[in-house]
Amino acid sequence: MEPREPEQNITHMEASLYNAAAEGNIEVFNNKQGLQLESLKTPNQDNVLHVNLATEETVKFSIIKIF
Predict the structure, then answer these.
(1) Is the Cβ–Cβ distance between 48 and 37 less than 8 Å?
(2) Domain parsing of the chain, residue ranges
(3) Which of 27, 20, 67 is nearest to 48 (CA)?
(4) pLDDT band for position 62 (cuts 50, 70, 90)
(5) pLDDT tens digit string along 14-49?
(6) Which pairing describes strands 11-12 and 40-41: parallel, antiparallel, or unpaired?
(7) Measured between alpha carbons, how far is 63 from 66 in angstroms, rounded to an integer?
(8) What domain of life does the UniProt record list for this protein's source (predicted)?
């Protein structure tokens, strides 16, 4: 019998949390009791750090592209 993959408890990220991650607004996450950041995922399996970094890179690229 082959070993089974560990089960993951994934909670899909609410739109308000996605927007807060994109904006770097950590207060939203600090104010939520019992929130497990590592389990919050987008449908693409991105976590809050991925969302923030992707948004920051997009903004930087857009600004560079304008100039």
Answers:
(1) yes
(2) 11-66
(3) 20
(4) very low
(5) 899 989 998 888 899 889 888 888 888 988 898 988
(6) parallel
(7) 5
(8) Eukaryota
C-alpha 21/C-alpha 56 separation (Å) is: 10
Closest by CA to 48, choosing from 10, 23, 66, 21, is 21
CB 43 within 8 A of CB 20: no
CA–centroid distance for 58 within its chain: 15
Q: How far apart are CA 66 and CA 37, in angstroms?
A: 34
Q: State the amino acid at position 43 in one-letter form.
A: P
Q: Which of 32, 41, 34, 31 is nearest to 8 (CA)?
A: 41
Partner residues linked to 12 by β-bridges: 41
